[in-house]
Specification:
The protein is of the alpha/beta class. The chain contains 14 helices and 20 strands.
Amino acid sequence: MFTSINPATGEAIQTYPELDADGIELALSRAKTAYDSWRVSPLDERTALLARIAEAWEADKQHLAETAVREMGKTLASAVAEVEKCISGFRHYAEHGPAYLEPTSVKTAGGHAVARWLPMGPVLAVMPWNFPYWQVVRFLAPTILAGNVALLKHASSVQGCAGLMQQLVSAAGAPDGLFQNLAIKSDKVSDIIADKRVVAVTLTGSEGAGAKVAQAAGRALKKVVLELGGSDPLIVMPSADLDLAAKTAVTARVQNAGQSCICAKRMIVHAEVYDAFLEKFSAGMQAVTIGDPMAKETGMGPLSSIQQRDTVLEQVARAVGEGATLLFGAEKIERDGAWMSPGVLVGVDPESDVAKEEIFGPVAAVYKADDIDHAIALANDVPYGLGSAVWTTDDAEIERFARDIESGMTAVNALLASTPEAPFGGVKLSGHGRELGPWGLHEFMNLKAVMYGGGKPGD
């Protein structure tokens, strides 16, 4: 049994039954049956379904958003924005997907070859709670377009969101079994990956969860895509617009209560502008309005759970114990639910244990860099490599950062955010493989070479 708990109040919302062995078998059988017909469906049928799903989500946008707020605590404004991004994701693949699947012809010594993209089968997605819709849509939309079918193992805390997604896809006219939410716990995942009807798996989550899924996929010799944690740097150079850089850094640390893999967590600031940036950034963090996530004026709601809040507080305490200074905040707020205040750490030893970890909450570490080489060294001195952001108007510096920062993405004078058109993913312990754009679509497709000789058939 799964129980959804409102992190703003600590109250139980609803319970959901766990899928038993017979239910899992039925879901896998439905997925295989759905794939047998969906794999040969016309491309315009797939794009039409994606367009109808987008319309269904548009019509139910408020309900979707409020369900996410109640289950994981993000503000209503950010939940609405997440649903709108999902709608754009469905529409992107409906409109641009066919071009991504165009075959390519090349000449060969004996004739020519045609490279074709073909579906592979049912794909399992293991997804987290922090963006309960968008994480899924990044996988679901291209899966539908590819001619594959989708199985979702969602986080235990957002089963309401998961069930609602399946309902809306079905209501849009999806064939039975095309997208199914499996209400299961993590201990059932390995057996599902091993099942011959499942061809691949994608996971967004911690590196620990990623290692387990990759191990299970490796045993079964199946494709896996992993989008794991991040401790993203935001580098500020002397030519930067400090006001905008500081404002964006605040947004990065408090949106989703700091529970976003790709938003900046470590602010690395050139010594020439360090004091000025720190003053602006600290003022912005202290001005964040904390309160009811359903209220329009709220800038930050609770964390997703008391356990997650306490994990962040423990990391801050260890950082201070290892020599860092907590300028303000990062304190438990005494009220029911998973509340804490935003905080800023300085003087963190880059070689300390906490400096190498991801702090998944509204706490920033601010570092002083002597020059661009030092800034890049600090940026790369963690085991993660998901995203990064740089603030400078110097073209040569931008090129250095783009070339030398070890990450899958770099935002220039902007908040790093995923978009349906661009590849999304990381390096190092942040995972491998890509989502979104043609790159994400192709991850779980068979690139088949059809070889033609020079003569006519029968020659």
